[in-house]
Write a structure and sequence with these properties.
The protein starts with a strand and ends with a strand. The longest helix has 14 residues, at about 30-40. It has 2 helices and 28 strands. With about 350 residues, it is mostly beta strands. Strand 26 (about 310-315) and strand 27 form a beta hairpin.
């Protein structure tokens, strides 16, 4: 059954623009040792920030929801419960941004949250302690969307100049810039296999870069209006975009060919996200609805009409069974989505 599990009204004092799930699984000691050895050999880049975030880690599995609002705050919530039961409890209210928070993400380990704001900074936070780990100053043009790389060592953000800036999680140093040579880069996403990063621009263009070489692989004239959200399928083969023209489009990543166009929302489509099991994907819109789509059939299977204003963001949980959505109505909602 598709159902509303939990509703938190006035979760922020102003509209909520961003949300993300975090999933923390405690490592067993022997696995930890192997991971440490691998990290020492291959990847020291995100070590100190991760070490700091790894202090005081819980010894049980935890699920989190991170939200960012126009009240300048980032909030971390604990989600507890299974099946069609669940409780949302406030853990941390994170102060630091001086203007509205427009994007949040959580690393794959479920230990660090990233937030970007109209104040032109990206901030990294320990999910468990609520302490700020890092501030990255993105310069005079504000950072818009922020995403972690799949391995959690870097964060990327798009900006007004049409560039994607990539920063190291440890130390916050600037690693590289990918130039779309286009307009304001509104949305960005990494493919799950880490090979590609894609961006959606205010003029409706999509750019796909090869992460390793930094080369532009595809430019797609995707939409007639601003692309609000872009996301790769879990198998990294498809790219889904959502735009102000009221449509979503799905592309084959390798060929850049259009696979399908999806219509159904009555207004701007503000976010899109795949379920990790790739059976469904979710969209949210300024028509106040959240829609669940069947991946194989490419059709809408359920519409949630519980929000009272535009729904800025909707995201699937790691087990594909829950959807969190946030809205201009200042509420956070968690829905059951049967797998």
């Amino acid at each position: 059954m598709f159902s509303l599990l939990n509703k938190r009204e006035n979760a922020h004092s102003e509209g909520i623009w961003a949300c993300a799930w975090g999933h923390y699984v405690p490592k067993e000691k022997d696995k930890e040792k192997v991971a440490e050895d691998e990290e020492n050999g291959e990847n020291k880049e995100n070590e100190s920030a991760n070490n700091e975030a790894d202090e005081n880690l819980p010894d049980v599995e935890e699920r989190y929801i991170v939200t960012g609002g126009l009240d300048d705050l980032v909030r971390i919530w604990r989600w507890s419960g299974d099946g069609v039961e669940g409780e949302l409890t406030s853990m941390h209210t994170l102060e630091g941004h001086s203007l509205g928070v427009i994007s949040v993400d959580v690393n794959a380990a479920g230990t660090i949250a990233a937030s970007s704001s109209l104040d032109s900074t990206i901030r990294l936070w320990s999910i468990h302690t609520g302490t700020q780990l890092q501030t990255i100053d993105c310069g005079p043009v504000e950072a818009w969307s922020v995403v972690f790389s799949p391995d959690g060592s870097q964060v990327a953000s798009g900006n007004h100049a049409g560039k994607i800036n990539v920063y190291a999680v440890d130390g916050g140093r600037h690693v590289t810039t990918l130039d779309t040579r286009g307009r304001f880069t509104y949305s960005i996403a990494y493919s799950k296999d880490g090979k590609y990063v894609a961006s959606g621009a205010i003029d409706g263009f999509i750019n796909i870069f090869d992460v390793e070489s930094g080369k532009l692989v595809h430019t797609i004239e995707g939409h007639a209006m601003t692309i609000r959200s872009i996301t790769f399928s879990p198998d990294s083969q498809l790219l889904l975009s959502a735009a102000d023209d009221g449509h979503m489009k799905m592309y084959d990543v390798n060929s850049s060919h259009l696979a399908c166009t999806l219509s159904g929302h009555g207004s701007w489509v503000l976010s899109a996200d795949f379920a990790p099991d790739q059976q469904h994907f979710v969209s949210s819109s300024s028509d106040h609805t959240v829609k669940v789509w069947d991946f194989a059939q490419r059709n809408c299977v359920h519409t949630f009409k519980d929000h009272l204003d535009q729904v800025w963001c909707a995201r699937y949980s790691h087990d594909s069974s829950k959807i969190v959505s946030v809205s201009e109505d200042r509420s956070v909602m968690v829905f059951n989505s049967p797998v």
